Amino acid sequence: MKEVFISDISAWAPGIGDEQAKWQDWLDGKTQIEQSKESPKLEYTDPLFRRRLSQITKMTVHVIHNLLEKTNVDKNTKIVFVSLRGEIEREFTINKSLIEEKMILPAAFSLSVFNTPVSSATLAFGLKGGYSVIFPSKNNFADAFKTAVSPVLAGTEEKIIFVYADELVPDYYGDKRPQENIPCAFSFLVNSKDNTEKNGKYIKMTTDDFDEISVSPVDFLQYILN
User: Fold this and answer.
1) What's the whole-number average pLDDT of the chain?
2) What is the DSSP letter of 16?
3) How far is residue 84's CA from residue 207's CA, in Å, rounded to a whole number?
C-alpha cells in the first residue's frame, strides 16, 4: 500500500470566490456555488493578457496563483490539469464559425484548445516544469485523479501540482448540458511524503482510499476541505 500527501488547497467558484469563510458556509450547506459566468479579476496579471481569457482559464490561473503565493513550490514542479469539458464555450464558438463561415481565426482557435487554461498559467507565472492534461472518459473524475497522482506513487516525481477546473456550460447546449453543471476550480500539492510541517495541514491518502473514490469533482473538493 502506497500513500500520497495532499496540502495547500486553493479553490475558487462563482459566488464564493476564495474566501475561507464562504467556503466553510458551503461545506456547512449554508450557501451554494452560483451557476454564473463570474470569474476572478486576475488584477495581478497584465490587462492585455487577461482581457480575452475565458471563465475556465481565469479560474485556473487564479487557483495556481494562490497556491504559488502560499507555498515555496519550485517553478520546475510539474502540473497535471484535469477538466471534464475544457474550453466548452469557446469550442462552441469555433464550431459555429466553422459551420457558418467555413473558417477559423487562428487567435480564436489558440484560445479554444483543451490545454489553454494550464498553459496560460505557465505563461503568466513563468512555470518551467511542464504540464500534462487529462480528459477523463465518461466524466470519471476518480480515474483522472488516480492517473494524475500515478507519477508520485511510482516515484518518478516527488510532488506535482494538481489542478481541476470546469466552467459554466452555456444555455445554448440545451438538454445536452450535464446534470452537474457547477463552475469551479481548485488546486493542491501532491507529495510523496509528509514534508508539510511548515505549512501545517495535510491529507494522507492511500492506494486503498483511491479504490473507494467514485465521486464528482465537487464531491471530492468537499472531501478534501473537510
Assistant:
1) 88
2) T
3) 23
Q: Are 67 and 188 in contact (CB under 8 A)?
A: yes
DSSP 8-state secondary structure symbol assigned to residue 158 = S
What is the total residue count of the chain? 226
* 29 has a pLDDT exceeding 70: yes
- Which comes out higher in pLDDT, residue 195 or 71? 71
**H/E element holding 211?**
helix 207-212
Q: 123 versus 205: which is more confidently predicted? A: 123
Question: What is the number of helices (H) and of strands (E) in the chain?
Answer: 9, 6
Amino acid letter at 209? D
Cβ 79 vs Cβ 159: under 8 Å: no
Measure the N-to-C terminal CA separation of the chain; round to a whole number of Å: 24
**pLDDT, tens digit (0-9, with 9 covering 90-100), for 76-121:** 999 999 999 988 887 777 766 666 666 666 666 666 688 999 999 9
Torsion of CA 161, 125, 88, 172, to 10 degrees: 130
Indicate the pTM of the whole model: 0.91
How far is residue 50 from each of residues 62, 121, 166, 193, 197, measured CA to CA in Å? 11, 11, 18, 36, 35
Extended strands (E) in 25-97: 79-82
For the chain, the helix, strand and coil percentages under 3-state DSSP, each to the nearest 5: 40, 20, 40
Nearest to 166 by CA among 81, 94, 92, 68: 81
- State the cell numbers at 104: 477559423
